[in-house]
Design goal:
Layout lengths: L14 H13 L5 E6 L6 H21 L7 E7 L10 H7 L1 E6 L4
Parallel strand pairs: 1-2
Antiparallel strand pairs: 1-3
Helix pairs in contact: 1-2
């Protein structure tokens, strides 16, 4: 799993993690991945669903650039429905703004 935002998914700190996932998918053409885009609770439901989708698709695009096949990856938005943290703090909100990467068998 990976904590990331739309702008931060390409930060150098995340590159090795995403490269490892992309390498695995490239070497295993039958493997599948589900990327779940998540948001914090601020913003309306529709806004958060759209933001979560953009977040998941940004990670998917990067995985494809790094060598995974587009058809191996599904991106979905969970919006604010699956919080990792429920405190009302900036640190907690930051934990909820993420994409979770699930491989076949985990979803």
């Amino acid at each position: 799993k990976l904590v990331t935002g739309v702008q931060t998914c390409a930060l150098p700190i995340y590159r090795p993690i995403l490269q490892a996932h992309a390498n695995y998918l490239a070497k295993n053409p039958n493997a599948r991945m589900l990327i779940q885009g998540n948001c914090d609770e601020r913003g309306g439901r529709e806004y958060n669903l759209a933001l979560g989708q953009r977040r998941a698709e940004a990670v998917k695009r990067l995985l494809v650039i790094l060598g995974a096949r587009d058809g191996q990856i599904e991106s979905v938005s969970l919006g604010e429905e699956k919080p990792r943290c429920e405190d009302k703090t900036e640190a907690c909100f930051a934990q909820n703004r993420r994409s979770d990467l699930l491989h076949s068998g985990e979803f």
